[in-house]
């Protein structure tokens, strides 16, 4: 049995760290951490291509702010206390119809966790809450993954691998090498107007075992990802892919 301290809520509270977290660290060596990005409803303005691009850019920057805030929180703790990032989401979104921007938000958050977990001392990452709060939509007669759920489905296959040592890996990609010799990679493109091209070394792997792309059927609230044929290919020891705007992709390479 492992105990996680409830954490600082509301935010602030160096006094709590000094007088509760530190004295109890042998009993509860991990602190729960929450963050929601709160936006006024007017941010969801899809009336023009320009306003839509601003929505996506603002949400993308909110992930950067979340990672900065996590680093700042880490700086207040001794390194023998871990962090459990228990809740992260776009606030007030549970009563909205699902949309594409939330899925890209989840993909970028997961990407950030994978890239930074050691630097910020993450012990656990959880999600609140999966069912009917924008990861899995369940109704009386049907259920489906939302765009957030689809991002989680793609990124979960990094489990069991170790981060690939790739100097050329761009910020919006992640790669892990697995015991069976495969390399698993995920990609996202937050731009609503421009495709994004990736060129990642294969590490001697010559075969594309599986690849898929999730492309939006629209950008406004209510739209969902559609599974599309992925046209990535291996050229001269590199995996090359051009990803459509506002899309996600995954690929597994094998020997």
Give an account of the 3D structure.
There is one protein chain. Helices cover about 25% and strands about 30% of the residues. It has helices spanning about 15-20, 50-75, 100-120, 145-155, and strands at about 5, 30-35, 80-90, 120-125, 135-140, 145, 160-165, 175, 185-190, 195-200, 205-215, 225-230, 235, 240-245, 245-255. β1 (about 5), α1 and β2 form a beta-alpha-beta unit. The protein contains four helices and 15 strands. The strands form four sheets. The chain has a six-stranded antiparallel β-sheet with strand order 7-8-9-15-11-12, covered by helices on one side. Strands 1-2-3-4 form a four-stranded parallel β-sheet, covered by helices on one side. It has a three-stranded antiparallel β-sheet with strand order 10-14-13, with no helix packed on it. It is of the alpha+beta class. The chain starts with a strand and ends with a strand.
Record the SSE blueprint.
Blueprint: E1 4-5, H1 14-21, E2 30-37, H2 49-74, E3 82-90, H3 100-120, E4 122-125, E5 136-138, E6 143-145, H4 147-155, E7 162-163, E8 173-177, E9 183-189, E10 196-201, E11 207-216, E12 225-228, E13 233-235, E14 238-243, E15 247-254
Parallel strand pairs: 1-2, 2-3, 3-4
Antiparallel strand pairs: 5-6, 7-8, 8-9, 9-15, 10-14, 11-12, 11-15, 13-14
Helix pairs in contact: 2-3, 3-4
- Strand segment count: 15
Order of helices and strands: EHEHEHEEEHEEEEEEEEE
The biggest beta sheet, please? 6 strands, antiparallel
Strand order of the largest sheet: 7-8-9-15-11-12
Number of helices: 4
Portion in beta strands: 25-35%
Residues in helix, %: 25-40%
Structural class: alpha+beta
Mean pLDDT: 90
Low-confidence spans: none
Oligomer state of the chains in this structure: single chain
Distance between the termini: 41 Å
**If you compute it from the alpha carbons, what radius of gyration comes out, rounded to the nearest whole angstrom?**
19 Å
